[in-house]
Structures are given as C-alpha cells and as structure tokens.
Amino acid sequence: MFGIDRIGGAPADENLGHAAGPELLPNVTGVILAGGQSRRMGSNKAVLPYGGVPLIERIYRQMSELFVETVVVTNTPELYPFLPCPKVKDQYPGMGPLAGIHAALNYSRTRYIAVVACDMPWISTRLIRELAGFRDGSDVILPEGDHGLEPLHAIYSKECIPFIEESLNADRRRIVSFFDRVKVQVMTLDQTSQIEPSLRAFRNINTVQEYQQSLENQVIGSTR
Ligand SMILES: Nc1nc2c(ncn2[C@@H]2O[C@H](COP(=O)(O)OP(=O)(O)OP(=O)(O)O)[C@@H](O)[C@H]2O)c(=O)[nH]1
C-alpha cells in the first residue's frame, strides 16, 4: 500500500515511549545534510559556534549516540576535517535537501537512514529512536510538528531511491514530492508531542537573528 498513513492506531500509540535506551540502533545509518548554500545566514551555518563546538559537531555527537555510522552529505568535505566520519557528495548537485537524501541512500550500507539537517541545534535522539522503531514495512517515517510534516528529522529506506530520482529528473525538488509513490508513516502531532513536548527538535537556524535567538534559547523558525 502506498501513500501516507499515520503511525497506526492504538497498538503503536501504546508502543510510543518504549524505544528509549543507550543502545546503538542496528541497520540504520545517521545522515547530516550539509550541502546547502546558507544564503540567508551569509556564512556556513554548519560551522557556527554552538556550545563551544561547531554546530555540525554538536549534531554529529548526538547522532553518534544512536548509530554505528553517521555520514555528512556535503560537496565541500574539506570544511569538516574535525568530523571523523565519511563525507558523501551529492549526485544531483545544487538540487537541495532531496538530493542530499538521495546521495545518502545510495551510499548507505544499511537499508534505512535517519536524516537531520546541519542547522538544527536541538535534534531529538529520543524522537529519532522512536521513529526508527516503526521502520519495518515503511519507506518513510516522519513526525508532524506544529508547522506540518518534518522531513528533515525523518527515516528513509533505500526503496525511495528510484522515486527520488524520478522527482529530481523532473526538477521536482520538494522532499515530499515522491511521498505518493512509497509507503509513508506519519507520527502525528499528538504522538510527537508525547515524546518531544517542546517540539524544538524541528527548529533550525537560517538567519543571523535566528542564530542569536537560538543561543538565547528562544523559539525560532521551522526547518521547511
Ligand atoms: N546535501 C545537500 N544538502 C542540502 C542541499 N541544500 C540544502 N541542504 C541542507 O538541507 C538543510 C536545509 O537547508 P536550507 O536551510 O533549506 O537551505 P540552505 O541552502 O542551507 O540555506 P539557504 O541558502 O539560506 O536557503 C541544511 O542542512 C542544508 O545544508 C543540497 O543541495 N545538498
């Protein structure tokens, strides 16, 4: 069955909150997208200082708590010598985050990847763990936040590759553009809020003002 379903009914709701734990998640590769232009920021968002380290390093450390391997998708790997991980290049350069997801899926040695952006200071390892718990039988598992679907805090399977290519070849760059071609499970806003009540996991920083606000822990823009 293709199309978008909510994460299913009572049994899944009962399962929510049971995925916490220190273990690494098997069969999932962590992915940090860092191939953007940072035009609104005016300088590379990924290396902005955050809590004493570059923002991307903060995110990398959190992802490394979850996955045996975390990779960064970037066309400028030389900017990240401090990250001890593989750097993967886009095969559709300049086409946005969907191209980054595509490159990561092609690279990945696991069937599933967990994708976050390099400009999200408060990713939720707990939420990623929960989302990954629902991966079997689904091609995309993503949460709904207070601004709608959050495809940059989500799980994708290799089954998505041909459909992403179809989209990119037709210059359809929105991440959701292929969702009608695969099996998508959405963690509803209610379910997401149970795990991540503040929803700040989805906040990202696009501008200098948002960066400054985020340092003061204020509410900032959505990732989409
Ligand atoms: N691999 C890859 N990642 C990208 C690409 N475009 C954006 N991203 C990443 O996707 C996430 C969201 O990016 P945006 O904030 O929408 O775009 P941006 O280019 O970084 O910033 P702006 O130039 O201000 O729009 C960030 O982690 C980006 O690094 C791309 O073409 N390839």
TrEMBL record:
**Gene3D superfamilies for this protein:** Spore Coat Polysaccharide Biosynthesis Protein SpsA, Chain A
Cofactor (UniProt): Mg(2+)
Query: What residues does the MobA-like NTP transferase domain cover?
Result: 30-175
Question: May I have one GO cellular component term?
Answer: cytoplasm
Q: Which GO terms describe its biological process?
A: bis(molybdopterin guanine dinucleotide)molybdenum biosynthetic process
Q: Which UniProt keywords apply?
A: Cytoplasm, GTP-binding, Magnesium, Metal-binding, Molybdenum cofactor biosynthesis, Nucleotide-binding, Nucleotidyltransferase, Transferase
Q: What is this protein called?
A: Probable molybdenum cofactor guanylyltransferase
State the species of origin. Geomesophilobacter sediminis
